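Lab meeting prep.
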Amino acid sequence: MRQLRTLSLLLLFCVLFTAGCSTKSRITPMGDAAHIPAGSTFSVGQTVDDSSFKFGEQDEKFSLCDTMSASLKNALVQEAMESAQGPLVIKTRILAYAPGNAFARWLVPGAGATKLSTESEVYAPDGSMLAKIPVERSIAAGGGYTIGAWKYVFDDVAKEIVAVLKKDMTAK
């Protein structure tokens, strides 16, 4: 009986652990563009905050736009896909942001979730939009190992944007 209870708790923990983090993304080609050209390099264009998120009195304040832009640039650099004068430009809108709370996630999975929702657009040198890339990232469970998720969620989203671009470039 004790082994069954232990096994049940272990199974519940595994389900909560794997369901605690999720990332949704896709690429939507626009116009006649079937794919992003292979070997393309990108520059980071303007990032706009449409989230209407307001920092509280106790919160560490930072610029959502600057953080997203820096994370995207770093992700592109890591994959050798960044060029300050890259022919393709990525512009990003932050649609929703919630910093969450690691302690609340530890107490009750789902409570205190960290969330970031963005939509990036890839533009050709002539200004035409080649693709849209919406990305949603949610960290809904976990405790100590998710401390700082309010900030590293931007890196996770940026890496996902770059992964989607790489996958699209190799899909030809």
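Slide two material, second protein:
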Amino acid sequence: MTDRFNKKVRGGILALAAAGIAVTLVLVGAFNAHAEDEIQSCDELQMSAKHQLERDAPLQSALWRRYDHMLRNLMLPMNARLALNGHSIDELASIASDFTGEMGVFESTFAHYQEEAEAFLIMRCDETAPDVAREIGSLRENMVASKQRLDNLLEAFRARVVAESENF
């Protein structure tokens, strides 16, 4: 019986030790993330933002041209052609409308991101630099999410056109 009790106690101690290690790892990870912000100097944060903006600006421009081309040269003419041929275009028109609206979001989100990043590049370094850098990262994530929504709408439009063509 004592041996069984000792095994249970050792098992309990091991479980507590494992839980303690897990908590310690979580705390160390959080501390390291905070320390990383503190270690990265304002100049490094600004250089990182500058390089990211330099990569994002041409990409956003190219994507904007692609989306505009898809809207003006595919979606709208396809809707017009289907409507002229007597097909219901309610769903396609709704997708095109959503796509147009999301293009506005994509454009304004990038403009806000670019404006904030450019302001960050010329701001005086102080203790708010990590917070501003995180905000710029969040704005960039919003732009990426908008791009994903545009891609999803294009896919929905394509799927609806394929479904419509099967009705012919």
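Talking points for slide two:
The radius of gyration is 27 Å.
The chain has four helices and no strands.
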